[in-house]
């Protein structure tokens, strides 16, 4: 993620986005919508912006229109062609296209792929999966972990990290209990 505009702009953030962002890098949003936002919240009052042949939007919809831009706009970096969607939580962020929201950490992360996979597994497995330390495992758990890794084709993958997942009745392996979400990557 990249910080695009600071949230200290307050109600003028949509205006500044529409004024300062090169139109050539924005897709998914009609230019007339950006022209409307560029007038700012005060300049939009009681003015009409035609969206289609039979629709008009009035100034009191400034924030609704901004939400449409947040939902639909895609920005393409002219240097490397990378595509980004928008996310606002006071600040305005560029999120790589395709990344998924992780509500537990209130952030975004890359989706699973041929080189990245995630599993909900018992928390006591963390030391073994990340460090190869079996000293904290119960009898038979090391075999259970190795069987899981073999079944999932993860024997040559690395466990990059884990984060709390809470209690799970149905983890991807192991017994119900306190779990972590483990991220495996393949180099």
The helix/strand class is: alpha+beta
Principal-axis shape equals elongated
Q: Flag low-confidence runs.
A: 49-58
Helix content: 25-40%
> Order of strands across the biggest sheet?
1-7-6-5-2
Mean pLDDT: 87
Number of strands: 12
Distance between the termini: 22 Å
Helices and strands, in order, run as EHEHHEEHEEEEEEHHEE
Number of domains: 2
**Rg (C-alpha, Å):** 23 Å
- Strand residue percentage: 25-35%
Q: Please work out how many helical segments DSSP would assign.
A: 6
Largest sheet: 5 strands, antiparallel
Describe this entry's structure for a reader.
This protein is α+β, with helices and mostly antiparallel strands and about 190 residues long. The chain folds into 2 domains: about 1-100, no CATH class; about 115-185, no CATH class. Helix content is about 25%, strand content about 35%. The protein is built from 6 helices and 12 strands. The strands form 4 sheets. The protein has a 5-stranded antiparallel β-sheet. A 3-stranded antiparallel β-sheet has the order 10-12-11. The chain has a two-stranded antiparallel ribbon with strand order 3-4. Strand 5 and strand 6 (about 85-90) form a beta hairpin. Helix 1 crosses helix 2. The chain is elongated. The protein starts with a strand and ends with a strand. The model is unreliable at about 50-60 (pLDDT under 50).
């Amino acid at each position: 993620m990249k910080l695009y505009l600071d949230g200290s702009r307050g109600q003028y953030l949509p205006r500044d986005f529409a004024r300062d962002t090169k139109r050539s890098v924005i897709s998914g949003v009609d230019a007339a919508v950006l022209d409307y936002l560029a007038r700012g919240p005060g300049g939009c009052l009681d003015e009409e912006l035609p969206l289609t042949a039979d629709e008009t939007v009035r100034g009191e919809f400034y924030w609704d229109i901004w939400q449409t831009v947040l939902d639909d706009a895609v920005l393409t970096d002219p240097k490397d062609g990378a595509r980004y969607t928008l996310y606002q939580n006071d600040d305005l962020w560029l999120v790589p296209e395709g990344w998924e929201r992780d509500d537990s950490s209130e952030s975004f992360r890359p989706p699973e792929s041929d080189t990245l996979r995630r599993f909900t597994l018992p928390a006591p497995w963390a030391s073994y999966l990340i460090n190869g330390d079996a000293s904290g495992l119960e009898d038979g758990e090391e075999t259970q972990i190795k069987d899981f890794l073999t079944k999932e084709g993860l024997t040559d993958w690395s466990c990059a990290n884990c984060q709390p997942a809470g209690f799970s009745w149905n983890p991807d392996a192991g017994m119900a209990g306190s779990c972590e979400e483990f991220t495996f990557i393949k180099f």
